[in-house]
Amino acid sequence: MEDMVIQQPQQHAQVTGDVVLRFTGSVEKDELREGLKAAGTFRRLRWLAAAGALFIALLGVRVDAEGGSVNIGLAVAATVYATVFALIAPRQIVTHALRAQRAHEGADCVVDGTGIAAVLDGADVKRLAWAEMTRYHETPGLYVVMGRTGRKSWGAVLPKRLLTAPGEAELLGAVLDSRLRRG
Known about the structure:
This protein is of the alpha+beta class and 183 residues long.
């Protein structure tokens, strides 16, 4: 679980720019949850759930001169919709993010002049360019970098506990401050 390895910056064939930081480790489920929460993902999802449920419920309300009526089927559908989006979807998002992270287990995280990359055996597994990143959030335990590629939004969670050498967490914070805006 605490499998952390910090390596001295090395230049691999696929890594471009000056390597600022290189660290290895895995992100825990509670860190992913905290990161998504800090980025506001769950808050927006709850607003979507409330607005959608209200819309569905209002479709079933009928008001006329004799009074009003409520379609019980649409009221139940609104309740199910809100439950799925407010309770089940956040858990599925965290589970999906954890599964995606575990698919690249053992990869180094490299922060360099072109962006942040997951490097496995000297080759980029995934590279996130600085131009694709929009903002970052900092919590006491991690950095969360948010970005957009085309129509797809994404987030990268960088736990501070993996930055064990003195000053590495502050260095990463300074790099993010110089390149991105705080969320």
